[in-house]
Each structure stands twice: as structure tokens, then as C-alpha cells.
Amino acid sequence: MDLDRALRISASGMQAQSTRLRVVAENLANRDSTGEAPGAEAYRRKTITFARRLDRALGAETVQVSRIGRQHGDLPQRYDPAHPAADERGYVKTPNVDSLVEMMDMREAQRSYNANLAVLDTTRGMLMRTIEALR
């Protein structure tokens, strides 16, 4: 039944976006996590990559998380000679997490999740009306 397919496709989108929200929350929670020893690495921002996946049972393409990685590149540094992770010059490596970018990612994931939820609700309503019509 096509309505069942619509439910499953929306559910896969919701699952992918909820993983994305978890990654954003992790990044925001660690935006101040520096190393504990001199010259130690700070927290690196996690990134998420999606991929299309052909679900043969459904006969449709769905979305899935293909990988959760780390953003590479130089870490920002801040001068704080009193910090336990300060190097010999007094600089501490800080996380490469930008709160504004994370908030934009969170908002986009929330909107996508809500769009999939609306499809799910509409499909469920159609199924209920079909069942009522068959009675």
C-alpha cells in the first residue's frame, strides 16, 4: 500500500534528522571543551553526512546517516597562560564549534523533522478515513 510506504519514508527522514539534532547538541555541549594537558587537542566539531538508500522492501529511496565525522583543520587558539592546557607560549587550543552555525543546523534539522512529521500525520489521517469508509 502506498500510504504505508509514505509512513516508512517519513519515519526514515525523522530518524536521520533526530541523529542530526543529537550531533548538534553534542557540539554545543562541548563548545568549551579544551584539552587537559599542555598542547592537548580540544574538542573537534562533529559533522554528519546523509546518503540516499534504496529500500528494496519499500521500493523507494530513503535517507540514512552515512557517517558521523570530525571537522578537520586548525583549531582556534586563545591566550590564557594560566590554563592547564596552555602550551609553552601560553596558548590554549579551543574547539572549532561556532554556536551560530550549530543553531542554524539545529533549526534546519527541526524544520525537516517537522515536515516529515506533517507527512506522517497526514498519511495517518488518510488511513483512518479509509478505515472509517470501509466500515
Overview of the molecule:
With 135 residues, this protein is an alpha+beta fold. The protein has one domain (2-134). The protein contains 2 helices and 4 strands. Strands 1-2 form a two-stranded antiparallel sheet. Strands 3-4 form a two-stranded antiparallel sheet. Helix 1 (2-29) packs antiparallel against helix 2. The longest helix has 36 residues, at 99-134.
Class from helix and strand fractions: alpha+beta
Global morphology: elongated
Q: What's the helical proportion of residues? A: 40-55%
- Our Rg estimate from Cα atoms comes to 22 Å
Approximate strand percentage? 15-25%
Q: Largest sheet, order of strands side by side? A: 1-2
Mean pLDDT: 92
Q: How many beta-strand segments?
A: 4
H/E series, N to C?
HEEEEH
Number of domains: 1
Report the biggest beta sheet as strand number plus sense, adding barrel if it closes: 2 strands, antiparallel
Low-pLDDT runs of 5+ residues are none
- The number of helical segments is 2
Distance between the termini: 19 Å
Describe, in short, the structure shown.
With 135 residues, the chain is α+β, with helices and mostly antiparallel strands. The protein has helices at residues 2-29, 99-134, and strands at residues 46-55, 60-70, 77-79, 91-93. The chain has a two-stranded antiparallel sheet.
